[in-house]
Amino acid sequence: MDTGQRRLVATMPLHAITSTYGEEGLRERFAVETESWPAEDRRRLNKALDLASRLHANDRREREPYVNHLLRVAIRIMSHYGVHDPDVICAALLHDAVEDHAAELAGGVDDQGAALAVLAAEFGPRVAELVGAVTNPQYAPDRDAHEQYREHVEESLRAHPWARVIKASDFTDNGVGLIHTTGPRLRTLAGKYAPLVPILRELIGRPDTPLDAAARQHILAQLDRAADRFAAVLPSLGERNE
Fold it and tell me: Cα separation of 217 and 35, whole Å?
């Protein structure tokens, strides 16, 4: 990527980077966001990105590599929320690692606790705690999975203020980015995410959420945008519970 493209990527919206430059552009934006960080912090961040890239190498998200989603979640926290905490950014890059690839992390044992222990050893206990807070557990098969998802998110995020920051960026990428989803999956995801909007609004507004006023307002605006898109997919509230 030449100097002119790099300057452009540093200012572009994240989904515009994705559509124009793909993974290469998002990696370049990540490098731009972290280039002024201390060397040890950059080493940890790149180590987390390398691990996430390996774990999700064969995963796809609609028409793009899954790592694009992880990069956007991490970049948004730095660029849009003003957070420069290496533990939070490492956890953002690895936020789906345990849920999707516990066995690969834990040496073939499909156990979330063992996978989180590996992350704690590699990146520290706080990173593992944050990843654990945004990791969905195994749900009871006799109950609605979406309902259990919402209950878990609300309970976990109330107890972990910094995890709210990661979930807000993840939800933004999922909710606002829903416009890039097509087919039956569009309605399924809208039905899953729409009831979470008021929960996240309340959590972001709590006094112990570690974000400044500008970042909170940015997130609330993104939640409103996501809600509008959910409403376009599911015109009546009743449809959300189908």
Answer: 27
CA 131, CA 116: separation in Å to the nearest integer? Answer: 8
Q: What angle do CA 99, 85, 212 make, to 5 degrees?
A: 105
pLDDT digits (tens, 9 = 90+) for 128-158: 999 999 999 888 888 888 888 899 999 999 9
How far is 71 from 89, CA to CA, in rounded Å? Answer: 10
- Is it the case that residue 242 has pLDDT exceeding 70? no
At position 215, the amino acid (one-letter code) is A
Query: E-assigned strands of 118-202?
Result: none
Which amino acid appears at position 172 of this protein? Answer: T
Q: To 10 degrees, the CA torsion angle through 171, 176, 177, 180?
A: 140
* Tokens matching residue 134: 């945004």
